[in-house]
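Recall that a protein's primary structure is simply its ordered list of amino acids. Everything else, from secondary elements to tertiary packing, is in principle encoded there. The following example makes that idea concrete.
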Amino acid sequence: MTIVALAAYPALILILRLSGKRTLSKLSAFDLVVTVALGSTLATVLLSRDVSPLEGILALLLLVALQFVAAAVSVRWPPSQRLLKSRPTALVRDGHLLHEMMRSQRITESEIRQAARSQGVGDLSELAAVVLETDGSLSVITRSRYGDGSALADVTSPTAVDT
């Protein structure tokens, strides 16, 4: 196992360095899946005698190549983004909870409040927006930081606020 680790781990580091920062990003659910799959593949290579080190390194290369291709297609052919990425979703607008959007995304009021608190916001009416991002994180934008709102241009949001 030690010899396998001495080959597989440096190979993974080299693959990640050559593939660029995007490989381990959390920009989309697909990126997260690749990151988890890389860890799982490395663990399998280290712990299973049924997988040769060469097969494991090839599996790591394949995962990184697939992620690279998916990201490249997404950048070069925007319609593919509908398949590969979800859109960010507004859960709060102008201090109002968007209950239908929260329900569809399976986010609770308590989770919204926690996100606000983690950003030092004690009053929901101070919120211009809370957005469920494509990676599952919640972005909190206060009224004082809203500016012209251009950062919300690609956010799915209802036309009317449900209160």
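The mean pLDDT is 88. The CA atoms of residues 17 and 23 lie 9 Å apart.
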